[in-house]
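Z., the sequence and structure:
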Amino acid sequence: MKTVALFFGGKSNEREISVITGMYCANLLRERYRVLPVYLRPEGGFLLADFFGIDEFRRAQESGFKGLKEIALVRGGIAPANRPKKRIPVDCALNCCHGGAGEGGVLSALLAHYRIPSASPDMTVSALFLDKTLAKIFLKGMDIPVLPSFTLREEASGDWREQAEELGYPVIVKPPRLGSSVGISVAHNEEELKKALALSFQLDGAALVEKYLAGKRDLNIAAYRTEGRIVLSPIEEVFSGSPILTFGEKYEGTRERRHELPARLPEETAERIAHMLTCLYARLNMRGIVRADILLSEDGEIYFNELNTVPGTLATYLFGESLTEARALLTVLVEEGMKVEKERETVESGILSKPLFGAKNGAKRR
């Protein structure tokens, strides 16, 4: 039986959502694979979990995770932190961390460094799209339409009033590196914008201020790769009773999540959205499953909002409602992730064998 290390948790405002995704995926995969749930502690370090449910996680957390083994990544697998030679080989890793370093490329980089195959997006893609400001710069370079915006850093905020007036109210304020609608506000005037900026600075140290699109439609579409081809989900439309889709509507059940799948769209619009995501996925040579959030204006203009490299429940619901379909999709992702690229040879320059510092002032050479 092949072994899958499933990573979840981490230091993030979305850590609890990550626990839900992690337990969901672990239970779906455990029938076919030996699943090793690995919890990223917010304070740092990895714990090998022995639970597969939310209630079990809650009890373990209340006990301070007493009895769980601290582990470390080693070449090709994991091992007890104090016994690195007791390696457990891992055939594939699956990233279920939302936000923070877990989703932002750090975990992907560590997995690559230790030659652990991964079924999730790589470091470059993960880091790029965790930061909405960097993502906008990149998307503009690919001629993918995004809404006009500007970014403020807390330590050098500048004259935001003039920039906001140029965009025109209302504007939407987002912490650039957070997800799940955490810290997002709509500001209709200068006073509201000032409060929204303060909240974003508190959560993220920066704020992305974007033109608010009145009357917009919120659309989602996911993609993954298998056998060399990119597979797209149907396009979903999500309805909200608020100006923005709130955290509660997404996760808490405080309001019923209303959606339509597939969305009712003109064929030409649906084709343009599908083509946009296909090109992006192919150009960046992505792997794993990603979900694109798209905004559609009242006059039919398409704007790319953001790309989620670790979407909630890995967006399995967009490809089918049943658990059987979700399990099949996760299995495809894991099997694709096991197809490890050939390890490239490292070239040594030999510079360290030369007497660089033997002569007088040799240390100053460049």
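The CA atoms of residues 102 and 273 lie 28 Å apart. DSSP finds eleven helices and 17 strands in the chain.

Let me know what you think.
H.
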